[in-house]
Amino acid sequence: METPHLQLDPESKLPAYVQIRNQLREQILQGDLPGGTQLPPERTLAQSLGISRTTVVSAYGELKAEGLVKGHVGRGTIVVGGAAWMDVQPIAWPAHFSGLGRRIARYAQPTELLSLRLGAHPVTVSFALGLPDPALLPPERIQQAWEAVVGRLGAAAVGACPVQGTLAMREVIAARARERGVAVAPEGVTVVNGSQHGLDLLLRLLVEPGDTVLVEVPTYFGALQCFQSWGVRIIGVPVDEAGMDVERVELLLARYRPRFIYTVPTYQNPTGATMSLERRERLLALAQQYQVPIVEDDPFSDLYFDEPPPPPIKALDRHGHVLYLGTFSKNLAPGLRVGWLVAPSPVIERAALLNGVAELHPNTVGQHLVVEFAQRGWLEELIAQARTSHKARCQAMDAELRRHRLPGMRWTVPGGGLFLWLQLPEQVDAQDLLAETAQRGVVFLPGSLMYPADGPRNVCRLNFSIPDREAIKQGIATITDALRKLPRRPTETPEEHMVASPIV
What we know:
Elements: H1 16-29, H2 42-49, H3 53-65, E1 69-72, E2 76-79, H4 81-87, H5 93-96, H6 99-107, H7 109-118, E3 125-126, H8 139-153, H9 167-179, E4 189-192, H10 195-206, E5 212-217, H11 221-229, E6 233-240, E7 243-244, H12 246-256, E8 261-263, H13 277-290, E9 294-297, H14 313-316, E10 322-327, E11 339-342, H15 345-359, H16 364-376, H17 378-403, E12 419-423, H18 430-438, E13 442-443, E14 445-446, E15 459-463, H19 469-485
Parallel strand pairs: 3-13, 5-6, 5-8, 8-9, 9-10
Antiparallel strand pairs: 1-2, 4-11, 6-7, 10-11, 12-15, 14-15
Helix pairs in contact: 1-3, 2-3, 6-11, 8-16, 10-11, 10-15, 12-13, 17-19, 18-19
């Protein structure tokens, strides 16, 4: 008989019999208790651990149910699983993954990089996120809205909904889209769990692995993850202060015949640039000429500082060339997971069907809450507050950057949105800078993550919607201090990206 090493944690939330089972199971599977080993009698083990015999009986019973031990008359409880289990080879999971399963591990790099950079240090100032300030959404309003929903709908508040989304939610989305000049009825809307979910649906509907898409660069890294994981060939189109370089688009359309053009034309993520009305009209004309859809991702149009932006490209579309994505994640709350797709009926029908196959229906609870906020007037009120807050914080960030400006730093102040795009001195790698500032509790997003390949290393995205003025002051001072001390190293910015990197 061999006495296993067991130690009970009185502070653990796990029952004693579960702790015993887990420890014995681990020792058996690791070979510390090989096959044929006799475990201590139940009463003996109970006395040694200061617990009841019933607890040990329960633990041994669990191990018997798993086939790791057997009870023998006259011999007690014997390990039988060790050798047998050790002989079984674990499944070779990499060989079972599809192309998508293999690519997703490779192209989830931005999240992985941030976790490596930031995981070891507590964050005191974050410029890395692309979310609204949660402090702008009063918890009592969430509670009031939900109580009203439950009072009106009862148990149906957490029930299923149509695959296209609730009618009330689609009516709210359609009404808000019409205010922007988009001609759409509720039937032309499919509710999705955020605009990135909508982009994923469109990829699966329109694109085969190996197909080509035109994508403005730099661009939203979540979109890049979608494209790269799906095995898409990405052709980058540079962005300047007036948005995507539309004249280059015509050359690329003729050469590559892409499946679609992806753009965030308003307060673009990450540069903050807004495509001019002239370029929007020209891009739509090219899409019509070459019969290529435009996927317009529009999460930020509500968040202008002073003057509203130009109308969405979808508002100019009269022949169904534009697939229009939006979300309430940036102007209300990301956890609601409510976004939308506005598109011609063949796309809407198939997107709803595909969504139903994958998820049965979109998030019902989130839809009810958004509708309640919209009907009470709270949604527009919160958006107005966000505009004021974002403008003040963006101005504060601009002021601090000017105060601590170093040679080689360049930026422009956007007219809305969540981000400021900062160019660093040419010999600086933003990932090296992040490694230094993260040790001091300040984080941001390196701009190289916003390019499909070979992007400039000396750019970064700074979010101004969440940190308050004091945090902005502290964060910018930390970044510029670290930048001042950071060793320079030779870098070569590829010519293809020179137009896209400094938005000044």
